[in-house]
């Protein structure tokens, strides 16, 4: 199983590590490098699968659950019922048959601890169907767009087949279970921790029972980010747990009069979630890059690592290459590294209900990893 991915920017040896939160403005922008990553798994401990379960249309600004009716399968709609639309989609996706390779694992679903997939940009149906494996953490890469490279919207590989849609992946069902981690370099906090007191769809409607758009605007002004400077930054909502930021969602828009802020996300953090508002580096500033192989912090270390990265949209997959440029080959041992400008998916599950995390999508340049001891 595989897919075409985007180039990855790796910083020079003199740069700070990937975990640095302050980009160096004097540092030259890193050169995007073409990557080829290979991972080998014991066939007695992993099952490779191919999915054609359909998803739904992309997120809309300010979409409420009711507005999603048009994108729901007609058979899933019951106009006489009081509907939880996330549940409707899950039940609808559950009507699809799991890929044969995963169906054979259903009887031992509790043994499946990790599912890794490479998918097109409509993974919702598959992600919902994977609820058949409640103890499994899910990590997925939304494959790079390749219409100008292969003539396909996405280019996925499964055995000897080249595919334009759906998903491919593998399910792991023998120990050890990898730990799922995230890193969000380049963020600067705008506020202290806040509690979501009301949300709907991809909208946050109240933070600490106050107007979230006005809280964001006041925090931006307090930081001195005013006028044209405010247009040079992107703003984010980070979900906090255990004193750490575990999810980050890009803020698409805000409406101080209505109070809501819309997120580039399928679903906003639920009521009771602890969040914090952040801003990223100004536009044009060097983005935090991956460390060089000589800088061990962040990527290399004991054990093995599989990492998915959201790549900059100005470094898409391209059929062009400069044959006269110097060849720069870098090798990261025990690291599988892949990037896409379309982002990654992550849902961390554990043995206890409190550890479960709904699958969410990251569309900004950060990283999610699976770590094996």
From TrEMBL:
Pfam families: FIST. Residues 115-209 form the FIST domain. InterPro entries: FIST_domain_N. Residues 1-24 have a biased composition (Low complexity). Residues 1-31 are annotated as: Disordered. This is FIST domain-containing protein. It comes from Dentipellis fragilis. The lineage of its organism: Eukaryota, Fungi, Dikarya, Basidiomycota, Agaricomycotina.
